[in-house]
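pasting for ref. prot 1 ->
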Amino acid sequence: MRDTDLQQRFMVDSCDARGHLVQLDETWREATARTDYPETVRQILGEAFVAATLLASTIKFDGKLTLQVRGDGPIHLLVVQVTNEGNVRGLARWSTTPDSSALQVAFGAQARMIITIEANKNAEPYQGIVALEGDNLAAALQTYFHTSEQLPTELYLAVSENSAAGMLIQKLPAEERTYHDADGWQRARVLCETLTDEELCNESAETLLHRIFHEERVRLFDAQSVQFHCSCSRERTDGMLHGLGKQEVDDIIEEQGGVEITCEFCDANYSYDTVDAAALFKGLPTSETAVDSASAETPSNTTTPSGDSNSGTLH
């Protein structure tokens, strides 16, 4: 029985390679609990959850990393965001169900992947734009690593009903290598190719690494937890309505009977009626708490999700 919802770093010293394992369980189930994703959309979103977490685990930063794909295909938006504390959230939006999970089919030929790293303190954000080359996210991200870091990198991503998991392995920079085995990296790649999706989703890190690298020198570091967490809140939606002003909120309630704000990341729904609006603009706490809301396939008035603003659909 393996531990759940973790990320773990390892070294294959004899191959001069480093790696990361991510296994998401309750995190993945929570991320998809409120939205009925078609199977192909769900597959790609699960891969993106793991891929973004793997990317975040390879760098040192204090803030958040966002992996975003936009296109003109059946899936027009995919966003996953990971913080340095291991909080992850994400979504996909689609107009029709793609015939397959191949990237060109799902997102369209002109789609691009955008990777953004935003620091909490005074540092310029980093942004990289990557063409979606290859059939899947693993292949596209391998291209990203090749062009941005010039380090050979292999990714393996798997999604099941209850889990999403993956492994990244990367050749060490020349100055960090100790064994200098000319065949080490090729050997590591060949051994990793024997991984199955079932093993990635179900086996513990210790079991996986022993099975793959039992003849190599391997070090496994302490695991860190990963959890689904969305920063939306009643307080933030209150702030959004304060920004609109009392008159506009009253007009919406008169016209539509209430105000509904749906978080674009987790589909939590925040409802306001006449009593709530009156309390809000008198500085009193409003009565409702967030409730789950079923997500439509083609939500109206969708805004670009953002970790700092209270992103949502206002009705």
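and prot 2 ->
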Amino acid sequence: MKALVYDGIETLGFRDVPDPVAADGEHLIRVAAVGICGSDMHAYLGHDARRLAPLILGHEAAGTIQGGPNDGMRVTVNPLVTCMDCPACAAGRENLCPERQIISMQPREGAFAQYITMPMRNLVEVPANIPLETAALAEPLAVRWHAARLALEALHPTMDKRAIVIGGGAIGLAAALALKAMNVNDVEIVEPNEARRAFLTDKCGQTAVPAATSTAPIVIDAVGFGATRASASQIVDAGGVIAHVGLGDDGPGLDVRRATLQEITFIGTYTYTSQDFRDTAAAIFDGRLGPLDWIEKRALADGFKAFQDLRAGAVAAPKIVLNPWT
């Protein structure tokens, strides 16, 4: 099969690799669409010690089951494979499983390829009226659905449901969409990039500003740099909640003194539970997350150029989705 392989810092090669072989309980999936995630970019830049070259990246995938009793079933893929036996899995908190694995990270190859294999429990059937490139958004949207859910669960019931999202890329936009689907109607996205801000406003129907114009009870840091943590510390209301989603760096920035004196809740969030993934897929299918027509589609063969364009800041769309068959 053809795959886009991470060969080293800022180097990707499109070439033939061996076809994957499904293990017991797994299904072979013909990948139809796979998104480029911020974590793929971190690996591409050499910033992720968990993803070592050579490796097939990509974990935001949808496709069609090949062979077996479910042959032809259109599915979106939960890339997080867990043990299903530990206390975290038993409690429905599979994202905290100590044995968790995710495709695109050793030892599991990713979905920048024509085929992958996954257990049936990681697959959600996609209705015939939903394009598979839209279904591939279930994974990135589920990450933000999880963050929005945790933030709302932590918010004191007397506080207003208003939110500021820092960052207008795919993470930030998905967080805003999830919040709105959960009846948080006053959501402002802070995005310094003028072209991306215009895209968010004109194409996505969001309120996007270059800098925060107020404070809010909920702040979601969808970037994750020291500077954005510092900003989140300043613009969250006393008694409010910061949900930290981005993994930009691990430097300082959070104002621990203000968090302590103002009883601000800080939540680190990672991936999603299986239920979050299913809930997100359902919200895509029934339209609660909007038309999701803001992706840019490219061929997997042109994936290296897509990474270069993202690195150069030359992509206005929040998400690039690659097709392995064009």
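The mean pLDDT is 95.
The chain has two domains: 2-137+292-323, 141-268.
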